[in-house]
Write a structure and sequence with these properties.
It is an enzyme of class 3 (hydrolase). Its EC number is 3.1.3.16. It holds the Pfam family PP2C. Belongs to the PP2C family. Its cofactor is Mn(2+); Mg(2+). The structure is a single chain. By secondary structure, this protein is an alpha+beta fold. The chain has 2 domains: about 30-295 and about 340-350, PPM-type phosphatase domain (Phosphatase 2c, domain 1, 4-Layer Sandwich); about 355-420, no CATH class. Helix content is about 35%, strand content about 25%. The protein has helices spanning about 1-10, 15-30, 80-95, 100-125, 175-185, 250, 255-265, 270-285, 315-340, 355, 410-420; strands spanning about 35-40, 45-55, 65-75, 130-135, 135-140, 145-150, 155-160, 165, 190-195, 200-205, 215-220, 230-235, 240-245, 290-300, 340-350, 370-375, 380-385, 390, 405-410. Strand 16 (about 370-375) and strand 17 form a beta hairpin. The protein is globular and about 80 Å long.
């Protein structure tokens, strides 16, 4: 009897190799395949891009890998775009606390993006160069996509069976009413270019400077109501995956989000990027630098994006195919709508630095324990008497808590005050 029970117990045991295989399959299901492609046509030489697929949250740990894709569309020269490509990512990662688990790291990422953008702008403006740049940064960590953007280099998401979603907001004064109101409330003037005879031409611009955008990195010669604080959005895809199209305005001036997505469906990422650029040039010609990055987040079971439908060979075959395709598409849409295509985790577009840095999840040390603060923007160490709370005297805070962090150095506080219209732009405070 005992031996029989032993045999039955032995039969219930799972071999170690089978357990390892199960774990590997589980890990595979958790991690999508990420593929990308890039294409560009240059007109002015002011578009730059960054693709970095070997980032690791924990150095040496491949399971903590994530990838970064970014586009910088410069204006008034390429210096700001080049500087941002070389420094922005390091500033973002430098603003993230060490030793975080994956979930905590993703939660801290939006605030780190804000700090990284502001620090990059601050450092570039110290150089005294007058160029500026848009910046759109996309961080892909498994199924989670985090996007931060200033300017009008857009990122869209195309999910099979779901709508096309804009993951960025265009900071163009012509279209963005909220940004126009913010700029004028902070002391800027918004209007079109006036020519001889009083006629007005072209898009709405911010004066002084004549910039069409309300947010950018650089532009030291423009009022400080042109801010580097990004719109940030974080989403989690379902296991159906999705396609990201990141492009400069050379694409979006020619194509809508919908037409760009539809023009490259069924193509692998590299060919898709080329097709989007080709379609933009066919529609509008090469009037501006035109840059596109396509990123496919592919479920483990699918090696390639879905192929386009075959060409019609005869009317009967076409009718049969269309009926079958329609039915399968309908079933697919219903199945995908049953699971959320995209789960929104975070969205914030405020141009007010105090609101964006907040006081939750502080990365700074308490003065009562160490006597040292860290500037939430530029990350320099501060003595306890040097730190200025983002809440101190803030007219935008619902409560005034000047003893709470995050804390800013005097330079970053001056920059913050100027951006939020608390002192006239251009007046430097020493």
């Amino acid at each position: 009897m005992a031996s029989g029970e032993g045999r039955r117990g032995h039969q219930n045991l799972v071999p170690l190799a089978a357990l390892i295989s199960r774990e590997m399959r589980s890990e595979k299901m958790e991690k999508p395949t990420v593929r990308f492609g890039h294409a560009a046509q240059s007109k002015k030489g002011e578009d730059y891009f960054l693709i970095k697929t070997d980032c690791q949250r924990i150095p040496g740990n491949s399971s903590s890998a994530f990838s970064v894709y970014a586009i910088f569309d410069g204006h008034n020269g390429n210096a700001a775009a080049i500087f941002s490509r070389e420094n922005l990512l390091n500033h973002i990662l430098g603003a993230l606390p060490r030793g975080l688990g994956r979930d905590e790291w993703l939660q801290a990422l939006p605030r780190a993006l804000v700090a990284g953008f502001v620090k990059t702008d601050k450092e570039f403006q110290r150089r005294g160069e007058t160029s500026g740049t848009t910046a759109t940064v996309v961080i892909v960590d498994r199924w989670t996509v985090t996007v931060a953007s200033v300017g009008d280099s857009r990122c869209i998401l195309d999910t099979q069976g779901g709508p096309i979603t804009n993951l960025t907001v265009d900071h163009r004064l012509e279209e963005n009413i909220e940004e126009r109101e913010r700029v004028t409330a902070s002391g800027g003037e918004v209007g079109r270019l006036s020519i001889y005879g009083g006629a007005e031409i072209g898009p709405l611009r911010c004066w002084p400077g004549g910039l069409c955008l309300s947010r950018s990195i650089g532009d030291v010669d423009v009022g400080e109501f042109i801010v580097p604080i990004p719109y940030v959005k974080q989403v989690k895809l379902s296991n159906a995956g999705g396609r990201l199209i990141i492009a400069s305005d050379g694409i979006w001036d020619a194509l809508s989000s919908e037409s760009a997505a539809k023009s490259c469906r069924g193509l692998p990422a590299e060919l898709a990027a080329r097709q989007v650029v080709k379609e933009a040039l066919r529609t509008r010609g090469l009037r501006d630098d035109t840059t596109c990055i396509v990123v496919d987040i592919i479920p483990p079971d699918n090696a390639l994006p879905p192929p386009p439908p075959p060409k019609k060979k005869n009317k009967l075959r076409a009718l049969l195919f269309r009926k079958k395709s329609s039915d399968s598409t309908s079933k697919l849409s219903k199945r995908l709508s049953a699971v959320n295509i995209v789960e929104e985790l975070f969205e914030e577009g405020s141009a007010m630095l105090a609101e964006r840095l907040g006081n939750e999840g502080n990365s700074v040390e308490s003065s009562s324990t160490s006597g040292i603060f860290v500037c939430a923007v530029c990350q320099i160490d501060l003595a306890s008497h040097e730190g200025i709370s983002v809440h101190a005297g803030s007219i935008f805070s619902t409560t005034s808590k000047p003893w709470q962090g995050p804390f800013l150095c005097a330079d970053c506080r001056n920059k913050k005050d100027a951006m939020e219209g608390k002192r006239p732009s251009g007046i430097r405070v020493s």
